[in-house]
Task: inverse folding
């Protein structure tokens, strides 16, 4: 199905955006900042920062940034006070919205500690292994391991992890030269989004609210699925397979769309 660029149909969106309450979910990398070679270099432009800041000061508008980055990393990159931050693909929710029982969390931490020790002992003599501990998710990167050692390292890592995977103590995802460990239960950006919508909504009806989600990742698809019947789903970049109903070409167009919302909500005249 051919999708519309959301900037081309803004007149049709005015009714939706004029609803009393707006929740705006935004992914970070690739949505608010262009994709860069190293994650540390993904910095918000001054223009985008100003727009986000303006949005957060609008009445009855909630801006939620939802990212695969850890909560601490995301907050540190954005540093805007009134934003609601969600980290680690939805696993790290804002304070007071814990979904993970503390005893399960403690067990998970114990398990990660054990795995980290085993990895360090087994692969001590093979440099280049990078462990990224995001508390709920543990990533094991082997991109920097010497080419001729990679197969060996992969086998060793897999050997250490597989008993826990078989016993359903953790979920293992393999990415590009990375093993990613998660707790053994299903949670994703979609479920986090649902929880946040319910929290913001309270007793009010969802019909009085506008929900918008803008993202470019595979992991955003869960959120698109969750929101599809309730609001506006926008993917950044034209993808063949996405559940989003609309698209924006790039970060620049995301900026234009956010600017449109600010102007509409503040009653400024819009020129296009
Ligand atoms: Mg992204």
Result:
């Amino acid at each position: 199905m051919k999708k519309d660029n959301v900037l081309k149909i803004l007149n049709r969106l005015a009714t939706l955006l004029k609803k009393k309450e707006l929740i705006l979910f935004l992914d970070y990398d690739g949505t608010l900042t262009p994709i860069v070679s190293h994650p540390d270099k993904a910095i918000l432009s001054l223009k985008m920062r100003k727009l986000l800041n303006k949005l957060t000061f609008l009445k009855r508008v909630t801006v939620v940034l939802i990212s695969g980055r850890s909560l601490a990393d995301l907050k540190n990159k954005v540093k805007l006070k009134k934003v609601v931050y969600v980290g680690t693909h939805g696993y790290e929710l804002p304070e007071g919205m814990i979904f993970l029982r503390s005893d399960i969390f403690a067990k998970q931490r114990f398990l990660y500690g054990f795995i980290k020790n085993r990895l360090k002992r087994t692969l001590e003599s093979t440099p280049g292994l990078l462990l990224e501990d995001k508390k709920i998710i543990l990533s094991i990167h082997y991109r920097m391991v010497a080419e001729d050692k990679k197969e060996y390292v992969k086998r060793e890592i897999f050997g250490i992890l597989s008993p826990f995977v078989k016993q359903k103590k953790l979920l293992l995802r393999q990415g590009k030269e990375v093993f990613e460990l998660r707790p053994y239960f299903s949670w994703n950006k979609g479920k986090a989004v649902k929880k946040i919508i319910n929290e913001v909504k309270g007793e009010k009806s969802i019909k009085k609210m506008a929900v918008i989600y803008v993202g470019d990742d595979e992991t955003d698809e869960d959120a698109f699925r969750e929101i599809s019947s309730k609001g506006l789903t926008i993917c950044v970049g034209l993808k063949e397979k996405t559940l989003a109903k609309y698209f924006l070409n790039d970060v620049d167009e995301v900026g234009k769309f956010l600017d449109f919302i600010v102007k509409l909500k503040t009653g400024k005249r819009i020129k296009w």
User: Anything to note?
Assistant: The chain has two domains: 4-98+187-266, 102-183. The longest helix spans residues 102-122.
